[in-house]
Amino acid sequence: MAVPESGGRLLDAAVALGNLHTKTLGLLTPQAYLQSAEVGGLLVALVADEVVGYALFGLPKRKHYVRLTHLCVADAHRGEGIARQLIDAIRAGHGNRLGIRAKCRRNYDLSGMWARLGFVPPGESVGRGHDRETLDTWWLDFGHPDLFTDMQSDALLIVGVDHSVLEGIADRSPDAENREPRIFKAPWLEDETELAYTPQLMLDIRSVAADTVRNQQRSEVARMRKFAPAAEAVAERHRELMDGVRAQNAELSMQPHTGPMLQYVAEASCAGLHVLATCNPDLLALADVAHEIGRVRVVRPAVVALHVDELRQAQVYRPADLLGTAFTTGQVAPDAEGELTAFFDQSEGEKGSAFEDRLRAFERDDSVAWRRELLRDGEGHPVALYVWAHDGRTLTVAMLRTAEHPLEQTLARQLLFLLKNLGRECEVETVRITDPFPSPAAAEAAGLDGFFSQDNGLTALLVDVCGTAREVSATANRITNRLKVPSVAFGAGLQTEIASAVERAWWPAKFIDSDIPCFIVPIEPRWSAELFNVPAPLAPRGELGISREHVYYRSPGRRGESVPARLLWYVSQDSSGPQGKMAIGCSRLDEVLIDTPDALHSQFEHLGVYGRAEVRAVARGHGAAMALRFSDTELFPAAVTLGRLKALAGDLEQPLSLMSLSKISSKLYQAVYEEGHRKT
Predict the structure, then answer these.
(1) What is the CATH number of domain 157-311?
(2) Which of 217, 289, 325, 605 is most buried, taking the most CB atoms under 10 A from its CB?
(3) CB contact burial 491-509 (16+ within 10 A = b; e otherwise)
(4) Fold of 330-462
């Protein structure tokens, strides 16, 4: 049975059972068990009202599987089929996922158990613990079609740690007060994370009086990754953080511990670390300011353990528009730099080993966490390379290259949009390309996408405001003032073409009080799957998936369509299943064309998923069809259900028709857009 959200006796019994097996399971705090129970991730097995086993698992938001963290059965009840019942219960409750994934050290000799439960070992990896033991990956397939190109990241979640976490890791005594950080030593979590430190930790270690304790802590730090961001940048970020604390709580800003705590945050922020683990309540009290100003998530070790997939997804970008395509993305492997020279060394100013040396230098740079991303086509050939990092304010692209490829121009345009999406995910204000030798296709695409020359590089603003012209301009001017570049202000009633051009340059800005019309477009699930990967299709989309532009066909009856315009996509429900009845995203409408089906298909075949027969079917009875060419689709992080759509329209006293394409007010568009981007 599932442990209730309130925990209680069943939770306590599961924790006690897990604590008897910390040698193999690692240590989790009761709070971690409770957090799993709150989201339905803790099942217990009962015999005569006694807890004799439990399963602790996670449901990653952006993955299709169940991540099994603990599978534990009391010694006296092994061999009674309890483990199988727990696995069957997980499957019964989450059979819509692809399967269950677990990792287990090979030297535990549990392969027979996993095999009896129906798991198979598709791969293995070298563990990241002190002993470097081999970890087997075990997979239980639920029997769904396995054609999803869900790109598994081989990157580790880099976790910065403060002194409270280091103390807990280094203190191995059985009666240690702070045991929570030991979860980082659990084999399954060691294989998912890499611990890192910044200079403030070394200062705290130096302050430890006991020689033995101090040396133990230094020994642990030697196994971690070092980051040493520029002192000037750290000092400036520290001032910004202190100003933020002072604005929220003047008394807290004067506490003697606040300065050192913020130093951890400032150093993590400037090093590009997204996660800072701590057990210190004083640092946890600063979590809101740390995220708001430094873009650093300050969390307890148990939170890292429970949400490692989501935290890693926020750190390592996997372009959503490449899911379901023949293209794959991953990190540049160490020592593989030389193999890429033939594909990306295209500049007269970058001769000999200069390209290889530059690319390798990013891996060795301990001042910031650079991500070296490589994109390959369906045949495995490298087609794009980009190296990026962010410091909480700016996403810096230090290398941006595309290789000669039939789709190089299209790919370059898509990459620029992906980088802007990445910047938005990281909550930065600017994207800056500093590559002295960008590929010509990439440089041209940047110019078309609102990047402007600044300080020997190219810069684009990210104005994440859906509001009035005054509100959008105020945010943009705050950013330009920081960059020391001229500012521009716009007023209400901005002309359609101008507003659309500025929205593209300042993406994802939306001028709600401009003259840009808004429409809601019903679309069947089968076509939304092909166009947007929602719901995920069972077959790859091939070259289509990397295009920023698409086309959608409908009957030729006019509904007041004009260009440019904004589109909201509403997935309707069809007879094939229950999926649908939700608004999933928005696009910019670039062209409306009515013509014969054959003429439209010939013109837009490279953009659309429709075959000639499908276009003819749309035109049946009319002799013509309407093509809507649209671009720069934003998929909402949270789909807006039909019920919420009706409620939002009702609150605004606005009509809502979902039978066919229809015009809606800017206010309703804004309400749906903000609902789709809600944080909670």
Answers:
(1) 3.40.50.1010
(2) 289
(3) eeebebeebbebbbbbbbb
(4) Aminopeptidase (3.40.630)
State the Cα–Cα distance between residues 563 and 590, nearest whole angstrom: 6
Q: What is the mean pLDDT of the segment spanning 414-443?
A: 92
Give the DSSP letter string of 260-286: HHHHHHHHHHHTT--EEE---HHHHTT
The full 3-state SS of 59-88, as one line of letters, equals CCCCCCEEEEEEEEECHHHCCCCHHHHHHH
Q: What is the separation of C-alpha 533 from the centre of its chain, rounded to a whole number of angstroms?
A: 16
DSSP 488-547: ----TT--HHHHHHHHHHTTT-EETTSS--EEEEEE-HHHHHHHH-SSPPSS--GGGGG-
Cα distance between residue 388 and residue 155, in whole Å = 14
Residue 226 phi, psi (nearest 5)? -100, 135
Output the CA torsion sign for 534, 539, 544, 545: positive
Q: At what angle do helices 199-206 and 258-270 cross, to 10 degrees?
A: 140
- Strands 510-511 vs 466-467: parallel, antiparallel or unpaired: parallel
Q: Where in the chain is the domain with CATH 3.40.630.30?
A: 9-141, 330-462
Q: Please report the pLDDT score of residue 451 as a whole number.
A: 92
Q: What is the CATH number of domain 518-676?
A: 2.30.130.30
d(CA 511, CA 509): 7
pTM, two decimal places: 0.67
Name the residue among 664, 462, 489 with its Cα closest to residue 498: 489
Cis-peptide, bond into residue 564, ω within 30° of zero: yes
Q: Are 517 and 505 in contact (CB under 8 A)?
A: no
Please state which CATH class domain 9-141 belongs to. Answer: alpha beta
Q: How far is CA 164 from CA 128, 190, 251, in A?
A: 22, 19, 24
- Answer with the residue of higher pLDDT: 60 or 262: 262
Inter-residue contact 311 to 193 (CB < 8 Å): no
